[in-house]
Design brief:
With 283 residues, this protein is an alpha+beta fold. It has helices spanning 26-30, 35-45, 57-67, 97-100, 140-145, 149-156, 165-171, 177-184, 218-232, and strands at 11-13, 20-22, 47-50, 74-75, 81-82, 84-86, 119-126, 135-139, 159-162, 189-192, 194-196, 202-204, 210-213, 238-241, 248-252, 256-260, 270-276. Bound molecules: N-oxalylglycine and manganese (II) ion (MN).
């Protein structure tokens, strides 16, 4: 009698409170056999790194689909789903390069959406020179869990207003009126500061879309939100990924923040992204 050996996830931690490296082969990953374990580890560790896995665009789409519901951002001429190019180079990414400038500051993707995406998968086609263009991640589950009981009680009652327009001021402090109004037309929503996930875990919902704590002044809101960002992105809860060609990094967008670190647009840094549809609203 032959016993089929079951493929298991092979992984090792990167830091104590964030990040794991996945060591399975490309074929094992594409087979879907470890998809369930990847989903569990993603929630537990916030960020998963697949070093130099070198997926083709089609393989990245196929791999993403093994993990949940593919969130389409782009389709090709045949209507098939495809990867989304991520670069600040306006020539390559007309229209969206400007919006990506906000990604240089700590954020959660799609806080304005009813169900923010569950996860993003970013792979590196061309890194910028060493010391630039890393992607930083911060574990907002760990950041919440490390608060004192008093802070948890206080912050647990806060509601925070979020808008894409608030990100504009990070890179363009005196925007033209048309641009501001275009970004404000995207909307403005009130979200709990502390996300109580269906799993029972809790995380902080902050980042560059957060601008005002409901019922508090601009002065008090700025102080508290700034403190929360610094707290959440401290060394113990964060990880900065230095890219090699073919790396794929996946993050739990519901329990982490991320940002691109500065790079020269002329460096040609080029990443491609796929996303998984969100499975719960922020509540
Ligand atoms: C994103 C993003 C960061 C980067 O794709 O959502 O924020 O390092 N990317 O390019
Ligand atoms: Mn982002």
């Amino acid at each position: 009698m032959s016993v089929t050996e079951q493929v298991r996830l092979k992984h090792e931690p990167i830091k104590d409170q964030i990040g794991s490296r996945i060591l399975n082969s490309k074929d094992e990953l594409l087979s879907g056999a470890v998809a369930g374990e990847i989903r569990e580890l993603l929630e537990a560790r916030g960020v998963l790194v697949f070093p130099e896995v070198k997926f083709t665009h089609e393989e990245q789409v196929a791999f993403t689909k093994t993990l949940g519901t593919f969130a389409p951002e782009m389709t090709d001429k045949d209507g098939d789903e495809k990867v989304h190019p991520i670069t600040l180079d306006e020539k390559i990414n007309p229209g969206s390069a400007a919006y990506l400038k906000g990604s240089l500051y700590w954020h959660i993707d799609g806080t304005m959406n009813e169900r923010p995406i569950l996860a993003s998968l970013l792979s590196c086609e061309k890194p910028s020179p060493k010391g630039t263009g890393n992607t930083g991640f911060a574990n907002t589950y760990s950041a919440y869990e490390a608060l004192s009981d008093e802070q948890k009680a206080e912050f647990g009652g806060y509601k925070v207003r979020h808008g894409a327009w608030a990100t504009l001021f990070y890179y363009d402090p005196e925007p033209n009126q048309e641009m501001l109004e275009r970004m404000q037309a995207i909307g403005d929503v009130e979200l709990p500061l502390v996300w109580s996930h269906k799993s029972g875990r809790k995380s902080l919902v902050i980042g560059n879309t957060a601008h005002t704590i409901s019922g508090k002044s601009h002065f008090d809101s700025a102080r508290i939100l700034n403190w929360l960002r610094n707290w959440s992105t401290q060394e113990a809860f964060s990880y900065s990924h230095e890219w090699s060609v073919g790396d794929l990094v996946m993050w739990d967008n519901t329990g982490t923040m991320h940002r691109a670190e500065w790079y020269d647009v002329a460096s040609g840094r080029m990443m491609v992204r796929t996303k998984l549809e969100g499975e719960e609203g922020i509540q």
